[in-house]
Write the structure tokens for this entry.
Amino acid sequence: MFYNIPENLPSELEELDSYIALYQRGEIDAATLKVRRVPFGCYEQREDGTYMVRIRTTGGALTPLQLRAIAEISGRYGSDSIHITTRQEFQIHDVALENVLPVMRELLKAGLAARGGGGNTVRNVLISPDAGVGRDEVFDPSPYAFALASKLIAKADSWLLPRKFKIAFSNSPADTSYAQFNDLGFVAKLSDGHKGFKVYVAGGLGAKP
Amino acid sequence: MHEFVPAEDFYVVTAAIKRLFDKHGNRKNRHAARLRFLWNTLGEERFRQLYEEQLQLIRAENPAALPIQDVQPRPVELWLRELPLSPKSKTHVRSLMHGLVEFATWAGMLDVSRNPVSLVRNIGATPEGAESPEPHGGAVPRSAERATRAIRNDGPAMRLLGLRIGEALALEWADVDWLGSRLSVRRGIVNQIVGDVKTQGPQRHSILQVNC
């Protein structure tokens, strides 16, 4: 497992479930539900009534059993293909609203969470795709990224930020995780043989980088 | 932000930046809310000043260091070097360890991102997959030579599975379903031509029984 599931995730899922039930009974509107479900990595697709669940996978890392679990869950509740994103996450598409919670509970059994897949939260932590094998690697930052992801997703204030917060780890100055374009970026560096990082903050792309 | 931060400080840096963003970030306009807008609004000097404040607050809280499960192949390497065994035996020890760790990771018993044993060098042993010197005049193509070596190494396994030599040679990784313990035999090589197996009969699946 590449991150630890926060202890309160099961109870948070129950809470989300109750909001979905309220929406289905017409007691809250779509916008109210949206505010609740997006920070759980659940977006509505272009086609009304179908949803996407974005699974946190730090650096895109999964155990073979987790990968199989995702494939099985997607086959049962979603589409035949899985979307692997530029932020190194796995997305299950074409999920009906009533199946969103079953999907999340099944993921939980496999040690996976969609929490923080969207909204103003600490988003998936990136790692250079060639971490651990890159020829120009200074050192493999993966253990740092895994530990950091576990720590941050266990903190309640990670879900209530002013806007999304993106972190990346690169294994060499070539910066293959684009640490410089994330809100917080770490690039592996040695100083007198001691491990450390060159740190970038407030990076980004878009209209005003 | 920093030219160099020691690895053990990477969490306090993260916590300080996150808290700075939490506290001072723009919550009114989501289109101007990312951290870079805060940097632009405050200017570098003020940003660094507020960051230092948060950093000191965090350091005062003295947060527990994060458990870094770093891969340390070096001790294994040194241990292996001291074993009173021949390089060949050490190769076997190393590959046994590699296999065990590989299985433990697969079974979810170990939380490592990669097999640490793969980083262990066994000095003095012939590297895995190393090409032996070119035979006289290079008459035998290297690929053929590699194939013969593969047969020699994997031969017993292949015989156990009841594969014909042509079928074994035509196997591709995609034919092996590791999780389902199945091996699909779809192709064979006859007279150096890769083709479908001739009859329906041989198009079979072998069950790779692994008892662990």
In short: The CA atoms of residues 67 and 110 of chain A lie 9 Å apart. Chain A touches chain B through 50 residues (CB under 8 Å). The helical segments of chain A are 9-24, 30-37, 64-77, 97-109, 142-153. The mean pLDDT of chain A is 90.
